[in-house]
Specification:
The chain is an alpha+beta fold.
Length: 535
């Protein structure tokens, strides 16, 4: 299998040379990055000023011409840290032992400055400040147990998307800081802005996968679509049209949040104290740029599917909070798909057919031991595939065969990471205990329906199952479980024809199913689910 990387040749990078999981999957997936931070980092790049081959870009995604001319150079982007905003929103709810005296000092200064700007009776100003603080705290996202600056907002607006900042507590104890101004003058000592500990590059990786996918020829995309029976629309088969639609979808997503939120975030972060933003977001009076990582070039198919699925969610008319929830779920599912598919490619030397694996899905309260056993075996086989791929990939490289390196790869980016994220997504139960297996939650089901059924459209139930199999490797019925057994190399089992009856019930309970007859049902897009169910 080819080890080429996009957007530049990363073979000389230390992470590439020393970590087999990063070499296989790209730089990088990490167990330290939550699903919300995975999405948040992706959106951070879309909202940041970017630079490719010296050209500045302000669009969410690079234009197609720039993608095609992009050759062996790094993506750079300029994330805003927004320390003032995080301090104002999160300090009062953070751990007492994480509040440095300079943090409290600057927080007090921000409050005093804000009160000066508020034009109400003086007795009401304290209440207004508290209301604004509670409003922003309501958008608290990941990292609630961390120091205030290492936390993140739910990324529902441009103003609430921010880069990573880590307070160096040990340095602060050994190097006395007399004031917030002193901290800013020595920001590199007291803050780490480029460790990628929580924004660990997973969002960068998915962003680059989409860019890499758009670089492919329409003929290659058309051939893959036909061979894998993905049934993309005519517009989705053209990278230029898909890219433009995704750009519009991201713009509409951010404009759906009330403008007041963006205005408030900008006012608190930049207008109350311009010095903090200038000294953390700028370098020598120029925007501070961060160099993004890379993805494996072979993952363009997963990247293209992610672009199609994101576009369908963003064009579905969901409100902004539902969009965040759906996108967060999609990013988790996509990460799992990427890990399995890339591992399958590795073990087959690039010859694996799409998607090359099976997830045998059970109902959550399944009592049939045979169905539960097949689902469990499909999960274990996927874990084994990822486990073996990392080791197989390592054998053909100059990475030292070190058990410590392998264990870290398994835990942080390999099969253990897969299992952890699958459980977090609700795709695998139980969260603890033996005989883990695949299931569906109502949330996952609605995301699958939204990304598979055409907007304002409907498809037959049988077509729906076929497309889930083609795009996600998920199977539910007797035929699917039979194919799964063949993939597992075990004897085919004979099941009842109503093995997937629970899925029909789940769709109906969600208002996404319309029965035409006992033998035919239609799956409806959520936008018309309520109308269609009663027609």
């Amino acid at each position: 299998m080819s080890n080429s990387t996009f957007p530049y040749d990363a073979k000389s990078e230390q992470a590439y040379k020393s970590n087999p999981a990063i070499r296989l999957f790209g730089n990088r997936f990490s167990t330290d990055q939550t699903s919300l931070e995975l999405l948040g980092e992706f959106l951070l790049i879309t909202t940041s000023v970017k630079e490719i081959e010296g050209k500045e870009l302000r669009s969410a995604l690079p234009p197609l011409d720039d993608i095609h001319s992009w050759s062996n150079s790094k993506l750079k982007y300029s994330p805003k840290i927004k320390l003032n905003l995080k301090l104002f929103a999160f300090l009062s709810s953070s751990r007492l032992d994480s509040r440095h005296l300079t943090h409290i000092e600057h927080y007090t200064q921000l409050i005093q400055e804000l009160k000066k700007r508020i034009k109400v009776d003086s007795n009401d100003k304290t209440q207004v400040v508290k209301t604004l603080e509670n409003l922003l705290l309501g958008f608290q996202g990941a990292g609630t147990s961390r120091t205030w600056c290492a936390q993140s907002f739910i990324p529902i607006s441009r103003g609430l998307v921010a880069g990573e900042a880590i307070w160096n507590e040990t340095k602060a104890k050994s190097h006395y800081a007399e004031s917030w101004s002193y901290v800013l003058d020595n920001a590199k000592l007291y803050f780490s802005l480029n460790k990628h500990r929580f924004l660990a590059r997973g969002g960068e990786l998915l962003y680059l996968q989409i860019c890499n996918a758009m670089k492919q020829s329409p003929d290659a995309i058309q051939s893959w679509n036909q061979e894998a029976k993905l049934e993309f629309s005519t517009e989705e088969l053209e990278p230029g049209k898909l890219l433009n639609s995704l750009e519009r979808g991201l713009a509409n997503f951010f404009s759906a949040c009330p403008k007041f939120i963006d205005d408030l975030a900008e006012f608190i972060d930049d207008k109350l104290d311009p010095e903090t933003a200038a000294k953390t977001d700028m370098h020598e009076q120029q925007p501070r740029f961060v160099e993004a990582g890379w993805c494996n070039s072979a993952t363009w198919q997963e990247g293209y599917l992610l672009a199609v699925e994101m576009n369908r969610i963003l064009s579905s008319g969901l409100d902004v909070m539902d969009s965040v929830y759906y996108l967060e779920t999609l990013f988790m599912l996509h990460t799992l798909r990427n890990l399995i598919m890339q591992s399958s490619r590795c073990l087959s030397n690039g010859e694996a057919k799409w998607p090359g694996y099976y997830m045998a899905i059970n109902r959550s309260d399944e009592e049939n031991g045979t169905l539960k056993r097949i689902s469990h075996q499909s999960l274990k086989n996927i874990e084994k595939t990822i486990y073996m791929a990392i080791r197989s990939h390592m054998q053909d490289t100059d990475i030292v065969q070190d058990e410590k390196i392998l264990k870290e790869a398994d835990t942080r980016s390999g099969h253990k990471f897969f299992l952890k994220m699958a459980k977090q997504a609700g795709l695998v139960i139980p969260k603890r205990g033996a005989w883990a297996r695949f299931v569906l939650t109502p949330q996952i089901l609605r995301v699958l329906v939204t990304t598979i059924v055409p907007q304002q459209g409907r498809i037959t139930y049988e077509t729906f199952k076929q497309l889930i199999r083609a795009r996600w490797g998920m199977v539910f019925d007797e035929d699917g479980f039979g194919e799964c057994c063949e993939w597992l190399g075990v004897e085919k089992v004979y099941l009842s024809s109503d093995t997937d009856a629970w899925l029909l019930e789940m769709l109906a309970e969600s208002g996404l199913l319309m029965h035409l007859s006992d033998s035919c049902a239609l799956v409806l897009h959520p936008n018309q689910g309520n109308d269609g169910a009663g027609s």
